[in-house]
# Entry
Amino acid sequence: MTDTLSLSKLHLNPQSERRIRKGHLWIYSNEVDTKRSPLNSYAVGEQVIVCSSKGQELGVATLNPHALICGRIFSRNCNKRLGLPFFKQRIKQALQLREAYFNEPSYRLVFGDSDFLPGVIADRFGDYLVVQIASAAMEEHKDALLQAFQNVVQPLGIILQNDHSARALENLPSYVETLGEVPEELTLVENGVKFVVPAQGGQKTGWFYDHRLNRAQLQAWVKDKTVLDVFSYVGGWGVQAAVAGASKVTCVDVSEQALNYVERNAELNGCDDRMEAIEGKAIDVLKMLVEEGEKFDVVVLDPPAFIKRKKDQKAGEAAYRHINELAIRLLQSGGLLVSGSCSMHLGADTLQDIVRAASAHLDRDCQLVYSGGQGPDHPVHPSIAETSYLKAQFYRVLTR
# Structure
């Protein structure tokens, strides 16, 4: 058994441990007893034993003394340490969940805090992994982490996609690194539909697995319907709608590369004769379609996060309202609006109120017929509300 005295201790203020005892994994800098545990005495990425104000050991965490969230607990067992055995255990646990639910090796394999690996994201594309590291502690133990992925999953190649903005919070360098032989394109299967995505240069890890169940739900609504897929990226919603029998699908995205992949994926699934693409900013294209008098049976809105920080709340909600109004203007009476949000700061009830208000403003009635979230490969930590971030609400919109 590892000696817990080998790590420094981090003492919390009185009452501050309540949230930790209830299961939360984050420690804020104002919760630390800085007289007993001056934050400037710790190194970035250091592992510490977290203690209550009375000295009871609550878990082991990694530290970033310069951040608002200065500590992240990675185990309640104070004898655990970051290293190959620990990473293998966590990755095996994560893999068991995914293999129990998914038939194809296409999923988010590791989802950070929810899989008790804070600062680590990993998406699986068959024999290949795309891994993102967002914490100094995990970066310091990168070799052991990657070795654990190799031992447990045995991928042919791994892309370290470490060029994302979250790394700046820990003063980590931006880089992309490839281990093993990785092709220029990765393949995946979602809801029985095949896709190819760029191995590098796409959005995030190359694909958004989180909406998988919501895209499956859409398939029941689209047979013989016209569909507008806004913020389409490589066609996750649109191509699946076409495969499910939509009569025509129009994909809208600002990226020429993304729309080239829409065409590729449509051809791959034999539905390219029913698909078209419009390149441009979503707001501009939606306004143009409204002016042209276009109407659709289904409009899908899957925008990026309009509310990334609390201070963006007011402007972000206004942006969601504006884009939902434009979408509703393009719907036939009785049409279906799919309103999505990946902003963790936007609650499902607030999105519902935004769509209701947008519909009322246009003299329409709406019915919420389905409300979904993220799939089981994006598990929610029950004590960390922020891990439940995804919304997909389906509305039937009627003319009064």
Remarks:
- The chain has a mean pLDDT of 95.
